[in-house]
Amino acid sequence: MNDQASTLRLVTSNDQADRATSPQTSNQMKTRSYTQSIAISGGKGGIGKSNLSVNLAIELGALGKEVALLDADLGLANADLLCGVTPKHHLGHVVAGWKELDEISIYLSSNVRLLPGGSGVSKLANLSVDNGSDLLEKLKDLEESIDYLLIDTAAGVADNVMGMLSAAGDVIIIATPEPTSIVDAYATIKVILQKAESKPIHIVVNNVVGVGDAEQVFEQIDQVVRKFLNHRVKFLGMIPTDPNLPEAVREQTPIVRYAPQSPASRAIRLIAKQLHSQESTELLTPSEKAKSFWNRLNQNHN
Ligand SMILES: Nc1ncnc2c1ncn2[C@@H]1O[C@H](COP(=O)(O)OP(=O)(O)OP(=O)(O)O)[C@@H](O)[C@H]1O
Ligand SMILES: [Mg+2]
Fold this sequence. Notes:
This protein is of the alpha/beta class and 302 residues long. It has 16 helices and 8 strands.
C-alpha cells in the first residue's frame, strides 16, 4: 500500500502532488498573528492520538490554515502509515545537517505538511542546541510561517514525551470511557501541570458510544483535576466509535478522506472548527506567544 498511487491519493491534484518535491516556501497562507503549537497526548497507548493528529491537521488545512504535523512518536512513528506515505528522511537528518526542512516535509495537502520526527526530536531535546544556531533558526522560521504546529506524541509520560508536552503551547488529552484511560489521562495532566502549571489542557473523548459517554468522561476528569490539581480542563470534543476508522487505517487513508461523511470524520471536523474558534492562547501575553515550541523544547535541557 505504500506505493506511489496511495501517496498520490493524499493530494487532490497533480499540482499539489508536485509540492511533495517542490516544497512551499512562502508564508502567504498564514492567517494568524502567531503559531499555536498543540501536542496530542493521553497517557495510554492505542487511544486514537495519531488518527486525531493526522485528520485534525487535514481539517485545519481545509479551514484555510497553514499546518505542520510533527510525528514525534519516537518508538512507533505511524502518522506516515496512516497517510500511506513512506518518509525517506526525518528531522534527525536535519539535525545532522544532511537535509533541509523542506526536503523532509511531506505535503498531505497544499497547506498541510507532515514532518517525520525520527530521532530528531529527542536529539533536539537532549543536545541543547545553542540559541541562535542555524538549526534552531530554521525550525523557528518554519514555525513562524504556519498557523498550527500539531505534535503527535508517544504514549506514556517518559521524559521526552513530557518535554514535548511542556514545550507545546496547548495540550490535547485524549481519553476514552475505559477507566484505565481516564486514570492515565489524569496522571498525564498531573505531570504536565507539575512542569507547566498554567498549560491550557483540552479534552477529547474518543470511542464514544452513547451521548452521555463524553460528558461523563469529561466530568470525571474535570472533577479530579479541579479537586486535586486546582486547574480547569476544557472540553474540546468527542469522537464516536466508528467502524470506518479501522477500515481507513487499513487502507492507509486518513478517515476524513476515506469516509468524509462518516460519524468520526464529522466529529473531527467539529473539533477543528472548535479549536479554530477557541482562543485560549490569545490570553497569553505577547512575550509568551512569541516563545517557540523548538526553543522551549531545547531550553528544557539547557
Ligand atoms: N473512534 C474510533 N472508532 C473506531 N476505532 C478507533 C477509534 N479511535 C481509534 N480506533 C482504533 O484504534 C487504533 C489506534 O489508533 P491510533 O493509532 O490513532 O492510536 P494512538 O493513540 O496513536 O496509538 P499509539 O499509542 O500506539 O501511538 C486505530 O487504528 C483504530 O483501529
Ligand atoms: Mg500513535
